[in-house]
Amino acid sequence: MAQAFSVSGPIQGTDSTLSFETGKLAKQADGAVMGRIGDTVVLVAATASKHLREGVDFFPLTVDVEERMYAAGKIPGSFFRREGRATDQAILTCRLTDRPLRPAFPDGFRNEVHIVATVFGADQVNPHDVVVINAASAALMLSGIPFQGPVGAVRVAYGTDGTWAPHATYQQGDSSTLEMVVAGRLSSDGDVAIMMVEAGAPEEAWKHYEAGAPKVTEEVITGGLEAAKAHIRQSIDLQRQLVEAAGTKEPLAFEAQVDYGDDIWAAVSDAGTELVTQASSIVGKAERNAAVVAAEAQLTSQLQSFEGRQKEIKAAVRALTKRTVRRRIVEDGVRVDGRGITDIRPLSAEVGLLPTAHGSGLFERGETQVLNVTTLGMPRMDQMLDTIGIHDRKRYMHHYNFPPFSTGETGFMRGPKRREIGHGLLAERALVAVVPPLEEFPYTLRLVSDVLSSNGSTSMASVCGSTLSLMDAGVPIKAAVAGIAMGLVYAEGHYTTLTDILGSEDAFGDMDFKVAGTAEFVTALQLDTKIDGLPADVLAQALQQARRPAPDPGRDERGHLHASSRGGGQRAEDRQPGDPDRPDRRGHRAQGQGHQRPAAGDRRRHQRR
Asked: Are strands 511-517 and 494-499 parallel, antiparallel or unpaired?
């Protein structure tokens, strides 16, 4: 029997301990680690294919999280009494794990890697998602799979006393005004570089603010990122101790893949720089994409001497386009559509589009267009949750749909993918703090965001559209909420932060940073990086840049709120519930009255209500 190795250490500021163990379970996996905080226990196994899959032109990393109901002493509530499809929480944990790990694999490594996390114990106190991230990193460190880790993660919660609690429990999170999962790794200078952030305000946040709790501002979040570093470092140190004790497997031999040869790059760069520069300077997305495709076809025709290497030429054209876009941003301060680095695209908003819906709002930012619809139901229509966590019901739901036509493409529609579920939950977290409690507004709320056109953060457009449709439905929300996506280009040691990024700036840039909130505090944020990580001061600058003066003289608003405060020609404070212009859809609902039996011939109005 193989020897088991374990390491553990107390979590500073708590009574808990973080521990890792390897060598006892899942011995045929390349790397397997059991992580534990309290009685929450997860086993993470990491395995890589020894051979490259033919024709793969991306890094095929897959993360699966298996939530076993026995971990919480429960029998599944489904008809078959066994676990079915992954829960939304499991999918969110998959995404949380994938995002900080993916940039830590070397360029050119394209062997399939599969990470499977199985939740063995759920103590109803300590969430398992952060344990999964840390144990996954540890498993990769032991596996011999090429991985430039370790990566550490921590959940911090901002309490009503104005302090950040490390490795926050479920109970601490619910009683806080913001929960934040932060992941990072050590940079060359010994500091912790931030790689991923996921944050949201809990349902009770507004109540805490009314009781005098300090607001979660950009400065507070910056402090939270700094506070998280010590605990990220602790996880990294423990992982290194585990590696030192157990050793690593023989490194996996792999051949770094390249998309194009040096000769192809030289030929495309010489012949196509001016052509690609002109094409990438076109403002309209469709016209720009068509021009790039035409440039690619022209270069393929010109470079006929490279017979059979059209795929390499196409990849080189994309790389040249990326280099051109990034150079213009860094050197000239000019973006793809001609904007400056802090400029916001034109905004448009409309409410009351659908006659049979309780509330509807159409939000547009540039070429991004999202229709959000609010439906109100009786309290018994809330969602029952069959999970291993402590929450078993939900009355505020947000669902996000991203059909292929929104980007002018064809495709298959087979239910929501992980990205759609993640974006829907992000928008849900952004609004749940301002939704009136059940005792004030006794209704279940379901919001649906249908993306009709996409060129830039549709998740943040969904946040803006949610505010509009909620007000249109007469829901007495506590404040307007909106969001904006920030980007970043890192070149020559300089960070250039972009406000309100386009889809191409997301693809060609180094950071996607979404920020949502009210005029007074932040309610949600999400950060992903494609580079080694970001210094906390760079993220602080991005947060501050998300706050910009609105066009109205004398008004100083957050950039991510400029949308909803000016949407539809009416501000939130001007559209109070109970307006006499549409009493059937707003007045009665806002007063919390139940459904009344409709008069004969008035079925349509009853459905609308």
From this structure: unpaired
Using the structure block, give the residue that is written with the tokens 């050590």. 186
- CA–CA gap between residue 101 and residue 547 (Å, rounded): 30
CA distances (Å), origin 31, targets 66, 407, 554: 17, 40, 59
Tokens 């459905």 -> residue: 607
Distance CA 559, CA 547 (A): 5
Three-state SS for 387-406 is CCCCCCEECEEEEEECCHHH
Nearest CA to 33 out of 252, 239, 195 is that of 239
Exposed/middle/buried for residue 158 (C-beta within 10 Å: 0-12, 13-18, 19+)? buried
Compute the distance between CA of residue 239 and CA of residue 150 in angstroms, rounded to an integer: 7
Instruction: For residue 42, list its beta bridge partners.
Output: 35, 119
Q: Which residues pair with 114 in a beta bridge?
A: 47, 62
What are 609's two structure tokens?
A: 């209500």
How far apart, in Å, are the Cα atoms of 185 and each of 63, 138, 188?
19, 12, 10
Task: Print burial letters for 111-128: b (CB count within 10 Å at least 16), e (below 16).
Answer: bbbbbbbbbbbbbbebbb
- Measured between alpha carbons, how far apart are the two ends of the chain, in Å? 67
- pLDDT surpassing 90 at residue 603: no
Q: What is the pLDDT of residues 176-235, one digit of tens each?
A: 999 999 999 999 888 999 999 999 999 999 999 999 999 999 999 999 999 999 999 999
Q: Which pLDDT tens digit goes with each residue over 332-374?
A: 899 988 899 999 999 999 999 999 999 999 999 999 999 999 9
CB neighbourhood size of 382 (10 A): 18
User: What is the average per-residue pLDDT within 75-104?
Assistant: 93
Residue 282 and residue 286: Cα distance in Å, rounded?
9
Give the CA distances from residue 62 to residues 45, 47, 426, 551, in Å, rounded to whole numbers and listed in that order: 12, 10, 21, 45
- pLDDT-derived band of residue 152, with 50, 70 and 90 as boundaries? very high
Residue 569 confidence (pLDDT): 37
CA atoms within 13 A on the CB side of 431: 35
